[in-house]
Inverse folding.
């Protein structure tokens, strides 16, 4: 019995086909599993292990290195408040304190209803709009205490559900084409180019167009 | 110095709301550079990039042409693009990826042709959800248009490109950690030698790793010629560059400026750029190239935005991020937050970095929060010396990668430039800025 549903499994198998080594699909697959389950479950890690030819321990060992991969359940919306240098200068510490009291959880915690996980994040590369906040890895612009509370209210009411999908950074990413250039033909093509180059340099010609 | 008006090389399309679409790209000369390159020999294409003397835009500033020439003898290689932009206060690649993804793809295709690689990968930061959507969608369109895949534009040249998401780890911006991550592993930097990517890179094969902004420059260089690019800027710093200005300025943002011809003063104060310091405060200090770089004071604002010039002054242009801090900024707090970042992001392989960053962060925290001791300043410098002997610039290294020697920059700058401010925290038992 597969843990990943049919659509996810098809996407996961398509990922494997993109790389010279199946293990390269491991991290993208973890994103897919989070898209389905909201977090990276032990069942999903076992299946990813099978699909990529490693052990479940190796999947977990890799996943636990990365901030975006959650091996414990998180809220429907992961709200990340950056407090790194540019945001610190823009009042991020104060915003984080407000967010903690507003949501009633410390950074790293999840609200009892399971809707929000608050994270104190490192730089999110949107430093001209500070303090920077991302919800499920969607930028929502620089926030004030007031706009933050409105944001939380809008997320709760569902009015932002089109802009901010639930988990999975790849939820709207679809590759429509597989690899087209077969390894054999590429190797032949490169060998021909290399021969041409050798003959050009043998005849003493410099770079020519 | 004055603000020059160079051609917009990488931000030419940004004025258009649909700058990320294939339609807009084709309407503004898109994929013409690729068509031209495919009529040239790969050596001639590489030669143009060498003539441009384009310095890598990722942070280390290694000449892209030279990096390529180390590889051109090898028949089987990969091209990997580093789009893991995570250096704090750097937000230029973010802009290029979301607003002009085709320009990056075209740069990759031209570079792949010059290098004759068998496959290319674009590694994007996992947090760039919109960037991943835009880049993948642009790549789908490029395949559809015949610009990627088999027999590109009927030239006989074939190349597949794969967009790969990261999952949140600063260290994956380090090129060998990025390769580990692309292989589906923890982002542990590899030891060099022997694991120079040019020799033992992705899957053990020779690999070139270039930054997103470096790629974005390539189409223009092929269209206009390497000499036209080299005519901009001065000395080794040619062309234009994206500068991400953040902090206490009126107009934070990303600006494309001619290298060397423009100064930090222009960037921070010019009305069309930073617009000066916010409110009635004055500039206290600025970080010239990402948080790994030592800080500068107001007396250094007239330095030009050039790699060698900033290097000679004891810091680096690094990732192209400039952070202005005003007179109301607590420098202990600023240095503490940067140190906390390194402590969180250390991969943990090397003891000086793993342990040192944590100890430094705890000492900085206690000083900021009123529990510091006078001997802490010597202790901080001693710990910095253990991570990077001499605490000088360019730094010495005791670790596998350069994250370690980046840690002392902010603390040493803080203590050397604002020692009195540290002492006030200690004597008064708290932060004077609270």
């Amino acid at each position: 019995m597969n843990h990943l549903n049919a659509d996810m499994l098809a996407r996961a198998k398509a990922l494997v086909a993109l790389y010279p080594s199946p293990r390269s699909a491991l991290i993208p697959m973890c994103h897919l599993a989070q898209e389905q389950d909201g977090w990276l479950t032990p069942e999903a890690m076992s299946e990813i292990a099978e699909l990529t030819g490693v052990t479940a321990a190796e999947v977990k060992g890799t996943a636990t290195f990365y901030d975006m991969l959650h091996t414990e359940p998180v809220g429907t919306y992961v709200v990340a408040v950056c407090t790194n240098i540019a945001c610190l200068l823009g009042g991020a510490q104060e915003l984080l304190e407000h967010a903690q009291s507003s949501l009633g959880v410390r950074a790293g915690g999840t609200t009892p209803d399971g809707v929000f996980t608050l994270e104190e994040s490192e730089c999110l590369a949107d430093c001209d709009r500070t303090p920077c906040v991302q919800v499920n890895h969607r930028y929502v612009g620089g926030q004030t205490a007031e706009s933050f509370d409105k944001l939380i209210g809008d997320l709760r009411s569902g009015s932002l559900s089109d802009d901010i999908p639930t988990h999975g950074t790849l939820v709207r990413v679809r590759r429509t084409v597989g690899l087209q250039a077969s390894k054999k033909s590429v190797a032949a093509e490169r060998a021909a180019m290399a021969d041409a180059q050798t003959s050009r340099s043998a005849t003493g010609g410099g770079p020519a167009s | 110095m004055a603000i020059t008006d160079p051609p917009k090389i990488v931000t030419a399309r940004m004025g258009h709301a649909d700058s990320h679409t294939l339609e807009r790209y084709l309407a503004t000369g898109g994929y013409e550079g690729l068509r031209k390159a495919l009529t040239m020999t790969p050596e001639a294409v590489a030669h143009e990039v060498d003539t441009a003397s384009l310095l890598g835009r990722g942070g280390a500033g290694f000449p892209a042409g030279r990096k390529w020439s180390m590889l051109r003898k090898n028949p089987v290689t990969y091209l990997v693009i580093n789009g893991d932009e995570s250096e704090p206060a750097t937000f230029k690649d973010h802009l290029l990826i979301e607003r002009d993804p085709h320009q990056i793809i075209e740069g990759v295709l031209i570079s792949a042709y010059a290098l004759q690689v068998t496959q290319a990968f674009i590694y994007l930061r996992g947090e760039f959800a919109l960037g991943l959507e835009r880049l993948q969608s642009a790549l789908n369109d490029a395949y559809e248009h015949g610009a990627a895949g088999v027999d590109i534009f009927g030239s006989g040249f074939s190349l597949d490109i794969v967009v790969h998401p990261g999952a949140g780890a600063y260290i994956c911006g380090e090129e060998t950690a990025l390769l580990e991550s692309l292989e589906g592993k923890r982002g542990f930097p590899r030891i060099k030698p022997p694991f120079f990517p040019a020799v033992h890179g992705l899957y053990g094969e020779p690999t070139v790793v270039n930054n997103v902004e470096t790629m974005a420059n390539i189409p223009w260089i092929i269209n206009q010629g390497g000499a036209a690019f080299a005519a901009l800027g001065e000395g080794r710093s040619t062309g234009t560059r994206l500068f991400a200005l953040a902090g206490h300025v009126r107009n934070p943002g990303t600006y494309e400026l001619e290298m060397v011809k423009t100064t930090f003063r222009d960037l921070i104060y010019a009305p069309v750029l930073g617009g000066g310091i916010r409110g009635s405060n004055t500039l206290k200090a600025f970080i010239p190239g990402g948080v790994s770089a030592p800080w500068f004071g107001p007396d250094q604002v007239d330095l030009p935005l050039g790699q060698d010039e900033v290097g000679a002054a004891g810091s680096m242009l690094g990732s192209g991020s400039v952070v202005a801090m005003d007179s109301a900024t607590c420098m202990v707090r600023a240095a503490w937050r940067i140190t906390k970042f390194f402590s969180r992001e250390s991969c943990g392989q090397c003891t000086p970095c793993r342990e040192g960053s944590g100890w430094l962060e705890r000492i900085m925290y206690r000083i900021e929060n009123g529990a510091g001791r006078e001997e802490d300043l010597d202790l901080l410098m001693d710990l910095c010396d253990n991570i990077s002997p001499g605490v000088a610039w360019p730094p010495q290294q005791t670790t596998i990668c350069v994250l370690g020697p980046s840690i002392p920059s902010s603390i040493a700058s803080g203590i050397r430039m604002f020692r009195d401010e540290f002492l006030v925290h200690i004597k008064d038992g708290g932060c004077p800025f609270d």
Remarks:
- Chain B has a mean pLDDT of 96.
- Chain B is about 40% helix and 10% strand.
